[in-house]
Amino acid sequence: MIQSLDDAWKWYTAVKTIAYDMRHLAGIWDEPALETVLSLDNRLRHRTAADLKDAVNTILGTDDEDLNDLAVLVLFSVFEATVRARAKADVDRETALMRHPAVLSAIKNLKDSIENGSFAKITEAYKKMDSDLTTQVNQVRKFRNWVSPMAVVTSLRIVWTPKPRKAGSISTSSGWPSLKRPEKCPRRSRSRVRRSNVP
Question: How many domains in the chain?
Fold first, then answer.
């Protein structure tokens, strides 16, 4: 289970490594020596190089964009949960001695807002501590919010329709919607997950 940013980053690098390894393996899949070994395995004997290449392209997308977008979604969601938990812990510590019913009611509402309310309002509260960092967090948050429905549909395509998508959109079958980048959406490169050292 992904419970920390370290866990999320390990997941991303592991998936990327496996995808890259499968892409490399697909290039030598039909070599006689390897084919002899694979024919002995009940699971792999029916795989083809084309199957592996298609699966890799489905996971990575164009220039790794699909996987990177999904990584932004996962990483920022973990980051958001961490900030919410820490903010709630701070409130618990600062209000531990409060006893007045009206104050306790206000504290309860505050905790509910921290747990379930707008994350933008939570980050705004930290703006005086570090305005530049808060602005950067908000930029990534906006990108995460834009990429969320695309990541969900992409994940469904991996299950339902493993056909490669058309450039610039996520086209799906069986009545699934087709999503395109909004004209005013920030450029993908500004919020791209940083490149890992995966070969």
Answer: 1
